[in-house]
Write a structure and sequence with these properties.
mainly alpha, DNA-binding, 2 domains, homodimer, Arc Repressor Mutant, subunit A
DNA sequence: CACGTTATTCATCACATGATGAAATGTGGC
DNA sequence: GCCACATTTCATCATGTGATGAATAACGTG
């Protein structure tokens, strides 16, 4: 009986194995973090030998950064948030955050980034990048006073929201409709950005 | 020359090696999380063979829960926060949170808990416990409406604050004086607890 | 002082991980 | 059809992990 098991070498057809591996990697890194994700696990889930993973992506860390390729270009979204001036910037920020995190395509890399931010390795990389790439430009475009303080306050609320809604999936936050969240958080964020500071 | 290296068996004197191991374990679990912390690493840092760790604490997971032994008794602090009624409960909550997290004694176990909450294993355990042990009783004592929603909102802000100030150590949040933080966050928390909900 | 108990290390297991190099198999151009 | 090349697996290394059991040394009680 000629078994179907592919024994060795190249398989027939032209399956995009590289993309399959990358997809699995994104998933795992996002859901379990860097340390808890193993190259072998990714390989198995992708129906592939672990050596192939190394062949395509090099080291595990290389694969990680490859899986982080963001779907969101900061230079593209910052103007959208900033346009319109100080009024309503809180709402636009929240709305943008939710739309990005509610889209699976862009969520996975963000989750991986978020997770890695709290693991011992990458440390300051993520918050720093986030602050400089998004919140920094926004605050600059709006000409806020004490931008560092305001940006950090906003970040503290947004990080908490993301952590509970998307990472820990706490109810009723996880299932709350976007409009409710916007209505709830927009005033707070707006206050952090443009209100008086003690 | 009689070297000082202890070769085998029990060492002279009565050093509390068990406590030393536990201290190191608390530190490591808090700073690196469960997965990234190794029994051998703890043993080495405590100047001890790894077998001794197992001798005292059993499995690695046992050691972990042993290191979580909280310094804070919820039943003790909840009345303090709730006493005084709705007015000023936001400020009392923030003040309590900061005092607990600014004390190294109580911070380490909390950090370990927090970290484990975002690793794949413990999952819902921590937020659930936190909500039920602290925020739940508080909201009940205050007779709030829609307690789940309000409690989650508060948690989202507090988790973000803790994540940035104590875990990621983002400035200027990390070095901000307590009074400033109280003044900044108390109104928001108060609003989440007692203000109108959309 | 003898003896059981406790504290401590050594040697070792079984296993999982990341990584590499050689071999096998298909695809495409000439 | 042949040959360079890309794709895929196998076999293997070195390392690190959690864990166990036997051996040794100090302590405490009789």
């Amino acid at each position: 009986m000629s078994t179907t098991a592919p024994r060795r070498g190249r398989r027939p057809g032209s399956p995009d194995t590289r993309a399959a591996i990358l997809a699995v990697a994104r998933q795992r890194f996002a859901q379990q973090g860097y340390a808890a994700t193993s190259v072998r696990g990714i390989a198995t889930a992708a129906g592939v030998d672990s050596a192939l993973v190394h062949h395509y992506f090099g080291t595990k860390e290389d694969l990680f950064v490859a899986s982080l390729e963001l779907r969101v270009d900061p230079r593209e979204i910052v103007p959208v948030v900033a346009a319109g001036g100080r009024d309503g910037v809180g709402e636009r920020l929240i709305r943008l955050l939710l739309s990005v995190w509610d889209d699976e395509e862009s969520r996975l890399p963000l989750m991986a980034l978020m997770r890695s931010a709290f693991e011992p390795e990458g440390k300051a990389l993520v918050p720093d990048a986030f602050g400089r790439l998004i919140l920094g430009p926004v605050s600059e475009a709006l000409e806020l006073d004490q931008p560092e303080r305001r940006v950090t306050l906003v970040a503290s609320q947004l990080v908490g929201l993301v952590a509970l809604r998307y990472i820990a999936r706490i109810e009723p936050l996880a299932s709350a409709p976007v409009e409710t969240l916007v209505a709830t958080y927009a005033p707070v964020v707006q206050g952090y950005l443009t209100g008086p500071l003690p």
